[in-house]
Amino acid sequence: MYRAFITLLLISFLTAGSYATEIVEIPLPELHGLYSPEDTMTRYASFQLERSPITIYRLRIRLSGSVNVGQLMCEVTPSPFLQPAPWPMDFLASMRDSITDGRFFGGEITPMESGSFQMTIPFKSFGGATWEFLKSGRGDVELQGIPCGYILICMGIEEPDAVVEEAALIIEADFPISTDSETWSSVKTLFTPKK
After folding, report:
1. Is residue 32 in a domain?
2. How many domains, in total, are found in the chain?
């Protein structure tokens, strides 16, 4: 009776909680490069996880690089003259949910001054998108780098551009922990009745 209880307890212990919450970073070098109205404004990357997640808690994309802020001339009332204004870049990342056909979107504007930037953009669900499609372990990311929109009456004098030097997907999820068959065999041997 005691041996059966211990065996049941060990089996429960070994099978329950066979996962761990981890933060996994996946480099996306396909997203590196110049984003400019004169050149490329959209890039795509596919990724394959080494292990399929069980539960996904959060997904973000980290970008870093440099930006050349453009210049706008805008009408600002009550002044009758056009006023200069910075024109930054806007990065928009998206992933399509292949199961629901919804999408995940995230976006952020670069700093208002030329120089280096680093941003971590969270993805948000639209159109009923869920993380279920990522349980297959693969996905596709689309990244757009476009001149930021503006509300005032403005005209572009100099267009902005940006260079992405680093791009990485950051996934916070529960991943399965592999069970070593040799360890299980030695535990099983301890509690198997001898003949």
Report:
1. yes
2. 1
